[in-house]
RNA sequence: GCGAGCUUGGCGGAAUGGUAGACGCACGAGACUUAAAAUCUCGAGUUCGUAAGAACGUGCGGGUUCGAGUCCCGCAGCUCGCACCA
C-alpha cells in the first residue's frame, strides 16, 4: 500500500464493516464443540441479554469487557469459546401483545434481530453459529427433557403453595408486582391463593451449594457472602410443645407444636409460644374463633404491603391455648398468633424468650407478658440485672434455669439439646433459610411444563418421543388469564399412560429456569440431546463470567443448582458452572429536567459554560443527579446512535477508559469525543510511520541514539504493562498505557532521522496495533494492514512479548529524603549499593543545604528505591 | 438492625510500604489560520515566593515504621445488598 492509498483520516464507516466481513469469511472466531487438544481452552461468557428491543449502554460495557478478555486470550493461544444468545421468554412480550396486539413471538424475534444487528456492528468476537434463543423449541424442548430427568431423579416435586392472585387479570403475580397490596397493572386488591405448583428441590443441595462457595476463589467476596446468607445455615434444635388442654374435638395431629430455635439454652426464659398466621394450628383455632380468623385475615392483607414491612409493628392474638414446657412439666405458657412469625422458616412457630431477643422483648412488653431473666451478661451482677435494662442478645452465663444454672450459653446449648433428646421431645438440627424453588408460572410466553394431568393417573410426564411440547401460536390476548388455558384444543390430549382424555399442564417455567443452563447448551447448541458430554465437560466451567451484580443471588444460585442436578442426571460432569465471576458497574448519565419538572433526553439539552439549555426553546434546564441510565429518567444514550456518529471502536474505547470496570462509570459527551479523538490520532500517527518508515528498516546495533533507545524501551514496557493490566482486569490502566506509548511514538517523529529510528517507530506502531486490538479491534486490523499489507489478521496473531533486555532499567532516579520528606533526587546505576550512593545523596545541593548543622543519626538506602537520612538537632 | 464496599486535584481515576496525583476529561497560554474548527506545543494539587525553594496535602483521630493513600485500632459520611430468619 502506498501513502496515496492510505486515507488521511480513519473512516470507521467503511473500515469497520470491512473487517467484520473478513473475520466472518475467515471464520477466525469459530471453535469446535469438543475443545481442540492442541490448545488450552478458555470459555468467556457474558450474561445473555433479554431482547427488550434495543441494546443499551450497560450491554455495550458488559460485552466490550468480555470481548477484551476473549480477544486477549485468543492472542495468548487459547481456544476461546465466546457465544451469545437471548433470554427470550418473559412477561414484556405478553405485555406488548396485550397493549399493541403484536404476537409475543414476533415481537421477540424482531427485537432479537435488531439487537443482534447492533452487537454485530460493535464487532464483538462472538460465535454466532452458536446463537440460541430460549423461546425456540430447539432450546426449550431440551429444557423439558432436563425437567423430566430431574423429575425421575426426585429433584422435582409438586405441592401446594401460596401465590399472589390478581382476580382481575386472573393471573399470579410475583411479589415485586404487588404494590401496597394491589396488582401493579389492574390495581385490584391481591388475594392469597393456594395452587398446586412444581418445585425444584434446591434445598437438597443446600450443604453442597454452601460448601462449593469455598472453591470459588475467583468470585467477588461479596457475592459469595450474599449467597451464604441466602442459603442461611443455622444450627439449633427442633422441639415439640404439647398442648396443655386441647379443646374437645381437636385434631389429634395438632396436639403439639413444633418449633425451631438456635437458642435452646434459653428455654427457661420462655414467656409465650407464637404461631405464624398461616400455621395449621392457627387455622384450627380460627375455625371456632371469629376474632382469630379476623386477625389472620388482617395479617394476610398487610403481609404484602410495603407499609406493613416498614412499620413492622408487632401484633399478636392470644388463642387461649396453652402448651406445656418440656423442662417444667407443671408450667404452661400461652399460645399466640403473631404477625412477625414466618410460616416458611423453621416450622412456622417459635417460643418467645423476651430477655434474650429484641423482638420477643418488644412483644412481651406490648402484651404485658412476663420476662423471666435467664442470661446474665458478662460483668453483670445477678442481683441488679433487671428486665428494664432491655434484652441481652449476646453470650453470658445462665441463671434461673434449673439444671443449666451457671453454664455458659454455649455449654448450655449442648446440654439443653442432650436433655431434649433424652426426653424424646426434641433434637439438635441444622436449619436452612434456603427454600425450594417454585418454578410454575401461569403465563403463555414461557417454556411449557411437559406434564399431562389425568383424572385416573395423576400428573404424567410427557414421553420423550412427544417432546418438545411446543407453544401454540394461535393464541389471543383479548381477555384476562393464561391464553394456554383458553386455547380451544391445545391442552386436550390423551393420557400417555391410560389413553383416556386428559389435559396438559398449562403452566410454564419461571424464566430463571431458561438461564440456569444456557451456558451448558452453548457448548453443543444444535445437539439433539440437552448436552453432549465431550462438549460440556470439555468447555465447562466458564472461565470468565461477566455480568451485573443484580444477579448475585438468584440467577447464579439457580445455575449452580442446575449444574448439580444435571450432574446427578448424567448431563455433564462439572461441580461449578462459573469458575471466575466479574461483576461490572453500571453506566450512569446526568439527568435533565425542565421548569415543569419533566425529564429531558440528553439530545434535547445543550450544555454551555453558562449552564444547560433546551436545544430548541433555549429554556434553562436543571441538571440533576448522575444516575443509572433509565427510560423513566430519560437519561439514556442509544448505542446505535453512538455507533453511527463515532463508530464501534470509539464506543468501545470510551466504555473501557477511565473507570475501573467493576465501578460505575459516567457516560459523557466530552468523554466520547475524547475517545473519538484518540482513535483518529492513533490512526494518523501510525499512518505516518507506515508512510515514512520502510518495512525493511534495519535495527540499529552498536551505538544506539538515546531517542531510539527510549522509544524501544517504551514499547516493550508498554507490552509488559498492558499485559499485566489485562490479566488484572484493570482495562482502564491498559488504556492509559496505550495513550502513553501513542504519545511517545508521536514524539519520536521529531528524531526521525536518527539511525535505527525507522525500525523503532515501526516496532512501536506494530505493537500499538496489536495491543489495542482487544479494545478497538477494527482499528487494530486497519493499523496492522497499513504496516504489513498482506500479513495475518490481528485477530489471529499472537500477543507480543517484551524483550527482557529492553525491560531492564538502565538509569535510576533515586529519591533522597530527610526524615521521610523528599529533598532531591540523584542518578544511580541499577542495583547500585554502597557508600558512593550515600555520598552523592549527601552532596546533592538541596540535601546538603538542609543537612547543614544537623547530625545524621541513620542513613537508609534501599537500592533502586530510596535514600533517607534520619537527623537529630 | 445486620453485612459488604467506597472516601485521593475542578472531574473520572493511577500508585509491589519507598519521588502521591500516571493517563484521560475540563481549563489556561502559545503555534498554525484572514478567522474558526481540527491539529500541535507548553502549563497546572493548595498556599507563600520573581525564582530557588518552603509549608500544607489522599474523609477525621490515633498507632506501627527510617518512611503510610497503602498496614493496625477507633470514628464519620456516602453507596449497595439483606432485613421481623426464631
UniProtKB/TrEMBL annotation:
Its EC number is 6.1.1.4. One of its GO terms (molecular function) is leucine-tRNA ligase activity. Transmembrane segments: none annotated. The lineage of its organism: Bacteria, Pseudomonadati, Pseudomonadota, Alphaproteobacteria, Acetobacterales. It comes from Acetobacter sacchari. A motif ('HIGH' region) lies at residues 49-59. It comes from the Bacteria. Residues 44-178 form the Methionyl/Leucyl tRNA synthetase domain. SUPFAM superfamilies: Anticodon-binding domain of a subclass of class I aminoacyl-tRNA synthetases, Nucleotidylyl transferase, ValRS/IleRS/LeuRS editing domain. The gene is leuS. InterPro entries: aa-tRNA-synth_I_CS, aa-tRNA-synth_Ia, Leu-tRNA-ligase, Leu_tRNA-synth_edit, M/V/L/I-tRNA-synth_anticd-bd, Methionyl/Leucyl_tRNA_Synth, Rossmann-like_a/b/a_fold, tRNAsynth_Ia_anticodon-bd. Residues 712-833 form the Methionyl/Valyl/Leucyl/Isoleucyl-tRNA synthetase anticodon-binding domain. It is found in: Cytoplasm. Residues 434-590, 627-667 form the Aminoacyl-tRNA synthetase class Ia domain. This is Leucine--tRNA ligase. Residues 229-419 form the Leucyl-tRNA synthetase editing domain.
Amino acid at each position: 500500500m502506498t501513502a496515496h492509498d492510505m486515507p488521511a483520516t480513519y473512516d470507521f464507516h467503511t473500515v469497520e464493516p470491512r473487517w467484520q466481513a473478513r473475520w466472518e469469511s475467515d471464520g477466525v472466531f469459530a471453535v469446535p464443540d469438543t475443545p481442540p487438544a492442541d490448545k488450552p481452552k478458555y470459555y468467556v461468557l457474558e450474561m445473555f441479554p433479554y431482547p427488550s428491543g434495543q441494546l443499551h449502554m450497560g450491554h455495550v460495557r458488559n460485552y466490550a469487557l468480555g470481548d477484551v478478555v476473549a480477544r486477549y486470550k485468543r492472542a495468548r493461544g487459547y481456544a476461546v469459546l465466546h457465544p451469545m444468545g437471548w433470554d427470550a421468554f418473559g412477561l414484556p412480550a405478553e405485555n406488548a401483545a396485550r397493549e399493541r396486539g403484536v404476537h409475543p413471538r414476533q415481537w421477540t424475534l424482531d427485537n432479537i434481530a435488531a439487537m443482534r444487528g447492533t452487537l454485530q456492528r460493535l464487532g464483538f468476537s462472538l460465535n454466532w453459529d452458536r446463537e440460541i434463543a430460549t423461546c425456540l423449541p430447539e432450546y426449550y424442548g431440551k429444557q423439558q427433557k432436563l425437567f423430566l430427568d430431574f423429575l425421575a431423579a426426585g429433584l422435582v416435586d409438586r405441592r401446594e403453595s401460596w401465590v399472589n392472585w390478581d382476580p382481575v387479570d386472573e393471573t399470579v403475580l410475583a411479589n415485586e408486582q404487588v404494590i401496597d397490596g394491589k396488582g401493579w397493572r389492574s390495581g385490584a386488591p391481591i388475594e392469597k391463593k393456594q395452587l398446586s405448583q412444581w418445585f425444584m428441590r434446591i434445598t437438597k443441595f443446600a450443604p453442597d451449594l454452601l460448601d462449593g462457595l469455598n472453591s470459588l476463589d475467583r468470585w467477588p467476596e461479596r457475592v459469595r457472602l450474599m449467597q451464604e446468607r441466602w442459603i442461611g445455615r443455622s444450627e439449633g434444635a427442633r422441639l415439640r410443645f404439647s398442648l396443655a388442654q386441647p379443646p374437645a374435638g381437636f385434631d389429634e395431629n395438632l396436639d403439639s407444636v413444633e418449633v425451631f430455635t438456635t437458642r435452646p439454652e434459653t428455654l427457661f426464659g420462655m414467656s409465650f409460644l407464637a404461631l405464624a398466621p398461616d400455621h395449621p394450628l392457627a387455622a384450627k383455632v380460627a375455625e371456632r374463633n371469629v376474632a382469630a380468623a379476623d386477625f389472620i385475615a388482617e395479617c394476610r392483607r398487610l403481609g404484602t404491603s410495603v407499609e406493613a414491612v416498614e412499620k413492622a409493628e408487632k401484633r399478636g392474638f392470644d388463642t387461649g391455648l396453652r402448651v406445656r414446657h418440656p423442662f417444667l412439666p407443671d408450667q404452661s405458657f400461652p399460645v399466640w398468633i403473631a404477625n412477625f412469625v414466618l410460616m416458611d422458616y423453621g416450622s412456622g412457630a417459635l417460643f418467645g424468650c423476651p430477655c434474650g431477643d429484641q423482638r420477643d422483648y418488644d412483644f412481651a412488653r406490648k402484651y404485658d407478658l412476663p420476662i423471666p431473666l435467664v442470661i446474665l451478661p458478662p460483668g453483670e451482677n445477678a442481683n441488679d440485672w433487671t428486665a428494664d435494662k432491655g434484652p441481652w442478645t449476646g453470650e453470658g452465663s445462665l441463671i434461673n434455669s434449673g439444671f443449666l444454672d451457671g453454664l455458659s450459653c454455649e455449654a448450655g446449648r449442648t446440654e439443653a439439646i442432650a436433655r431434649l433428646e433424652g426426653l424424646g421431645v426434641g433434637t439438635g438440627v441444622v436449619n436452612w433459610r434456603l427454600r425450594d424453588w417454585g418454578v410454575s408460572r401461569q403465563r403463555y410466553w414461557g417454556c411449557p411444563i411437559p406434564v399431562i394431568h389425568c383424572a385416573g393417573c395423576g400428573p404424567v410426564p410427557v414421553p420423550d418421543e412427544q417432546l418438545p411440547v411446543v407453544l401454540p401460536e394461535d393464541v389471543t390476548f383479548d381477555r384476562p388469564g393464561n391464553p394456554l388455558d383458553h386455547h380451544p384444543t391445545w391442552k386436550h390430549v390423551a393420557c400417555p399412560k391410560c389413553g383416556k382424555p386428559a389435559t396438559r399442564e398449562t403452566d410454564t417455567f419461571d424464566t430463571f429456569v431458561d438461564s440456569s443452563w444456557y451456558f451448558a447448551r452453548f457448548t453443543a447448541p444444535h445437539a439433539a440431546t440437552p448436552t453432549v458430554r465431550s462438549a460440556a465437560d470439555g468447555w465447562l466451567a466458564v472461565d470468565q463470567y461477566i455480568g451485573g451484580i443484580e444477579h448475585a443471588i438468584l440467577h447464579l444460585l439457580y445455575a449452580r443448582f442446575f449444574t448439580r442436578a444435571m450432574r446427578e442426571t448424567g448431563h455433564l460432569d462439572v461441580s461449578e458452572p462459573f469458575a471466575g465471576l466479574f461483576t461490572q458497574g453500571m453506566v450512569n448519565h446526568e439527568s435533565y429536567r425542565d421548569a415543569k419538572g419533566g425529564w429531558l433526553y440528553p439530545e434535547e439539552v445543550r450544555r454551555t459554560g453558562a449552564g444547560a439549555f433546551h436545544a430548541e426553546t433555549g429554556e434553562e434546564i436543571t441538571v440533576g443527579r448522575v444516575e443509572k441510565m433509565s427510560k423513566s429518567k430519560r437519561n439514556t444514550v442509544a448505542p446505535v446512535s453512538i455507533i453511527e456518529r463515532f463508530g464501534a471502536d470509539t464506543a468501545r474505547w470510551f466504555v473501557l477508559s477511565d473507570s475501573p470496570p467493576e465501578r460505575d462509570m459516567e457516560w459523557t459527551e466530552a468523554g466520547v469525543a475524547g475517545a473519538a479523538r484518540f482513535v483518529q490520532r492513533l490512526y494518523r500517527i501510525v499512518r505516518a510511520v507506515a508512510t515514512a518508515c520502510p518495512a525493511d528498516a534495519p535495527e540499529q546495533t552498536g551505538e544506539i541514539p538515546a531517542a531510539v533507545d527510549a522509544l524501544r524501551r517504551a514499547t516493550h514496557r508498554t507490552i509488559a504493562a498492558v499485559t499485566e493490566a489485562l490479566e488484572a482486569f484493570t482495562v482502564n490502566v491498559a488504556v492509559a498505557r496505550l495513550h502513553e506509548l501513542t504519545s511517545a511514538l508521536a514524539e519520536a517523529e521529531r528524531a526521525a532521522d536518527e539511525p535505527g529510528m525507522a525500525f523503532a517507530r515501526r516496532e512501536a506502531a506494530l505493537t500499538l496495533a496489536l495491543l489495542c486490538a482487544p479494545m478497538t479491534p477494527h482499528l487494530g486490523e486497519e493499523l496492522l494492514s497499513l504496516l504489513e499489507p498482506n500479513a495475518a489478521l490481528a485477530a489471529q496473531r499472537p500477543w507480543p512479548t517484551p524483550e527482557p533486555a529492553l525491560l531492564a532499567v538502565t538509569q535510576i532516579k533515586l529519591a533522597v529524603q530527610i526524615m521521610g520528606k523528599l529533598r532531591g533526587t540523584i542518578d544511580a546505576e541499577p542495583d547500585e549499593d554502597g557508600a558512593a550512593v550515600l555520598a552523592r545523596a549527601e552532596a546533592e545541593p538541596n540535601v546538603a543545604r538542609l543537612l547543614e548543622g544537623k547530625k545524621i543519626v541513620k542513613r537508609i538506602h534501599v537500592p533502586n528505591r530510596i535514600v533517607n537520612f534520619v537527623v537529630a538537632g
